[in-house]
Amino acid sequence: MKPLDGFRVLDLTRFLSGPYCTMVLAELGADVVKVEQPGTGDDSRRLAPKVNGESYPFGMPNRSKRSVSLDLKDPRGRDAFLRMAARADLVIENFRPGVVGRLGIDYESVREVNPAVLYCSISGFGQTGPYRDRPGFDIMAQGAVGLLRMTGHPDGRPAKVGIAVNDIAAGATAIYSILAAELKRRATREGEYIDISLVDAGLAWTVWESGAYFGSGEAPAPTGTRHRRSTPYQAYRTADGYVTIGANNDRLWRRLVLDALDRPAWLDDDRFATLQARMDHIDELESEIEAITTTRPTAEWIEVLDKAGVPGGPVLTYEEALADPHVIARGMITEVEHPIIGPMRTIAPPAKFGSLEFDVRGPAPWLGQHTSDVLADAGLSGEEIASLYADGVAFDEHPEMHGR
Asked: What are the coiled-coil residue ranges (predicted)?
């Protein structure tokens, strides 16, 4: 049994923030029905690479779900959606503010047919405030919260975080907000509206940076791989690449100096004797450390650091990370069978429970794969469903695949 078994979700989201949230809910047991526009579906379905016409990137955050394809601009499509929503526990969308209202599927409209529903909206800037109507993707959110100005190397151009961090932050924020609202709903039988913003979610993750700014007015600037408050804590060059070292307290500093780098004189060197002194002379410290680390390859330094009890590790490419034996041993790569693509590798859920089930339930659906089943479950007759298909209001991209 999974913790969200029986929890029904109508997922109107696209791209990454919402689909990441609903992927996690699905793999915790929720029945997630992805509602998509006929013909095109989620915009991320166009992303390459494609295998047999299906987008591989789309398959990552949309696995474990079902797909219904309805034209919500058509009154019959909207009515069919509301009949589905009457039986849902959660409706989640990430349109620009105002769009769901114009479509007649906003929180107030859904609440009329389902007073206890949970309704979550994810947008770039939120449902209120002077920027609410601005379109906002991850890159705009990274710029709006200062991440582009604190990532990268000093004196470099603004740099994007390597992943869509604000999208994932918003998706993660939505996950715990929905679970909190569901706990309340189970106790009170009351629904809830949840407003999630990419900007708010990303800003909430600036924990150390906000502490420094509110405490002393320090604005975070790019530091490369360095920590803002401690050193040594960064990647250092080796003979064949880089090694990360995290000797960020006095105990680990002593181990690094005495047992790994064999530089006991640094303990009495005024430049490095205290944490503040090391921060004040961080450039000199980097040069001194790299004069040593560049004499041996990364793998040897990891052995030395492990023996000394100092945290350290390699700086891998993504390809190397996926092939790492520890990643493999932890079961972080799994495989699903897609009906069109065939075997697909994907990243597995990261949490490891003692007995609770949390795993990939299946591949991402093709566009409209479950339209007939879900509409029938919502109470539409066979004649009504056939009429919706005939008029292009409902859609199934591969009707010939059913029954194979």
From this structure: none
